[in-house]
Amino acid sequence: MKFTVSVTKIPTAYNSPACYVVEAETEDDARAIVKDRIGDLSGEHVYVYKVKPYVPPPAGRIVGTVA
Whole-model pTM? Predict the structure, then answer.
């Protein structure tokens, strides 16, 4: 199953989130895989994790951006 894991370093007001699409059996496994990937192995509360099922985007493409 695929999950989306959003990770934001604390304090969240000063740091931008990073998002990962992870293939794992459970949400806890997806969180653990991302924690290992970013090196959050200290056991301290340094990051905020949000995990949800992955939903693929609809068909289409981005053709540009407007400033």
Answer: 0.82
Query: 64, 18 in Cβ contact below 8 A?
Result: no
Are the beta carbons of 22 and 2 closer than 8 angstroms? yes
For the CA atoms of 43, 1, 20, 54, the dihedral, rounded to the nearest 10 degrees, stands at -120
Contact 48, 10 (CB under 8 A): yes
Q: How many other CB atoms are there within 10 angstroms of residue 9's CB atom? A: 15
Q: Which two tokens stand for residue 39?
A: 């090196």
pLDDT at 59 (0 to 100): 95
d(CA 38, CA 62): 29
How confident is the model over 7-31, as pLDDT tens digits?
999 998 999 999 999 999 999 999 9
38: helix, strand or coil: helix
